[in-house]
Amino acid sequence: MGSRRRTPYGPGNPGASLTVHPLEGCRGIRAAGEVGLATHTIWEGVLEQAVREGEDVYYLELSEVTFVDVAGAGALAAAAGRLGAGRRLVVRRPPPALRRTLEAFWPGLPAIEVTM
């Protein structure tokens, strides 16, 4: 995977980027950077892959993600809604604002598990 995109605009850092690598030992990805206007294509690709892979649990390690905008949170919730019964996304160590956004707009969404 190893996708990276830099652009001169975005909601956070002017050089916003999102780097994504596969997790070792379990199905999922480790991301670093920001999810915003400049990186939505990468983020949506990650989420589409999670939906397609068909695993019961898909991990999103976000401890190195500093920002996720509302559209990124919405894309996460939409992807969770496309998962089949009994499947879930486990979001590990997300930025605090993402956790709060999910709780505010998509409370109790059973297909997303947030772990700290």
From TrEMBL:
InterPro entries: MlaB-like_STAS, STAS_dom, STAS_dom_sf. Residues 16-103 form the STAS domain. PROSITE patterns: STAS (PS50801). It holds the Pfam family STAS_2. Coiled coil: none annotated. It comes from the Bacteria. This is STAS domain-containing protein. It comes from Streptomyces pilosus.
